[in-house]
Design goal:
Helices cover 33% and strands 15% of the residues. The protein is of the alpha+beta class.
Length: 99
């Protein structure tokens, strides 16, 4: 989470939106909401409440978490298995893409 927060801060105001999707069971929703507030998570926070059967998870072929996917403004996948925020390769990719 600290690396994700730093990434959000560094790229604020640029052509990028950080979207975090929690994949869990419906009964974990309230716990997730409290964690989002407690950790002061930024970006867009979404909840896929049908665990690995959630439509988004199925559509994007996600089979493990955490998973970082880079999607362009048109909805096209740029990198289906992008580097984590802690990996310098992610910023290198952003630079290559002109972000």
């Amino acid at each position: 989470i600290p690396f994700l927060k730093a990434l959000e801060k560094e790229y604020a105001g640029k052509n990028i939106q950080i979207v975090s999707i929690s994949v869990d069971k419906p009964e974990a929703y309230e716990t997730w909401k409290k964690m989002v507030v407690a950790e002061q998570l930024g970006g867009m926070q979404l909840y896929a409440d049908n665990n690995f059967e959630s439509q988004f998870i199925l559509d994007y072929g996600i089979n493990a978490i955490p998973r970082f996917i880079l999607i362009d403004p048109a909805g096209n996948i740029v990198d289906a298995d992008a580097a984590r925020p802690s990996d310098p390769k992610l910023k290198e990719l952003f630079t290559e893409l002109g972000i």
